[in-house]
Amino acid sequence: MALRTVALHPLAAREARAAWRWYARRSLAAAQRFRLAWDHVVQEIETAAEQGVPYGQSYRWMQLHRFPYLVYYEIDDPQPVFVYAVAHASHRPGYWLRPRRP
Asked: What is the number of helices (H) and of strands (E) in the chain?
């Protein structure tokens, strides 16, 4: 199976950077673990995006391992997979839907 391309909405990229910076201010080791968890989720989406948990009619999500962040994305066959949000699990579900739709 071919790898899918993963594209991030600019606000999703900003959320991922902000989360990494939050961990980096507290511990470089935690920031490194966050980065590895992020890379792992992106790799999972590239290889098996359909395995994400369905959300609404056309979205899916995966959680970063050992971190309270959910990556919400939409599969656009055949490519790419578009990431709309990197949301802390305590955020209101679906907060990213309206302002981020292209």
From this structure: 3, 5
CATH 3.30.2310.20 for domain 6-90: yes
What are 27-47's pLDDT values in tens digits?
999 999 999 999 999 999 999
Q: Where are the domains of the chain?
A: 6-90
Separation CA 81–CA 51 (nearest Å): 13
DSSP β-ladder status, 81-88 and 69-75: antiparallel
Cα 74 to Cα 61: distance, rounded to the nearest angstrom: 9
Per-residue tokens: 94: 């679906």
Question: Tens digits of per-residue pLDDT, 59-86?
Answer: 999 999 999 999 999 998 777 899 999 9
